């Protein structure tokens, strides 16, 4: 008897019926067999929702499912094929290519001609196919020979070709909620045929909550952890296997962090991190930063984002923020992890609490103006004195640069004179904020202008 075989007291006729599947993962055995057994994705499958109506009316067209791993993309495709009474053919874009697609097309043509049966082609990781491979699908989708269901963890609008997108309906799947996972775990515990019902399991509420919470939306992770916990326990005196919180913690020790350093989640998390600092919420900023680090993000990427933030979003309100961030990055490089977490947190909190100003963004307005209208002439009094002197001696005219007024010989080292080209002399791009140090600097300049503007 192996560790994973239930003892004779646990076995019975129902167990023997599933003997051939006992080595399959619990998540595989518990896949829903129809639309009513499918849990989660209520934004797509709830009463009256488009996908639900399409399935019930058997009016299914080609579609793309995109969402995080273990959000039920493959399972939903299987359920749809069952509801449609269609052949279900699977290709994996990592392993299969045009050759396998041609074979699937030939089979689809055979079954269509012999018994009129439709074929649903499921292509997993479809974003891995190049343009030519994706284009090879188009005529067969267009003719109706194949109904495509593609699955991807990437943003399809970036990873799939336009012609394929135009022929498919897009559906975004979300991670399973904690309540969804609790429901599916309980269903597995109650199912004598495919699940763990024949083991006679008692599970504490806090243990069930732990599985549901620590799965991080990954139902496969939760079910497989429950399977391990159940199979490695022996029955107690009452004949039941008792899963406590401690056993649940042992079985699913690390929460899944849904983060891909190169995919959409990378940009979503980074965006949430920046927007939390911009919104002056240090707790949220620390949360998203920690999530990125837990997901394996390079700390230097985070420091680069904070360096940009120090000028883009704090800017003139606290110019020391940039110096501070550079110093923290330098300290991190000298120290490394895990102590380097202090420098990351220090900088994150400082930038979150710092006064905010985006006035440095004026440079982009100026560049846009120059690109659209060109650069004006340098006013004569701002031109290089030496170069202008050579020209004036040659032409016998007065050197125009001599009219330049040197600010340092005037009170407060300021004098009123024109610095922009004539056609731009009244243009204002920089607009100071009323935050932090920037407010004091701007008010100082305004006071000088008011006091000495008539010199």
What are the salient characteristics of this protein?
single chain, 455 residues, alpha/beta, Rossmann fold, Helicase, Ruva Protein, domain 3, five-stranded parallel β-sheet, two-stranded parallel sheet, disordered N terminus
Number of helices: 22
- Predict the CATH topology of the largest domain: Zinc Finger, Delta Prime, domain 3
Order of helices and strands: HHHHEHEHEHHEHHEHEHHEHHHHHHHHH
| CATH architecture heading of the largest domain | Up-down Bundle
Poorly predicted parts: 1-20
Strand segment tally: 7
Strand percent estimate: 5-15%
Widest beta sheet: strand line-up? 2-3-4-1-5
Major beta-sheet overview = 5 strands, parallel
- Indicate the percent of residues in helices: 40-55%
Apparent shape: elongated
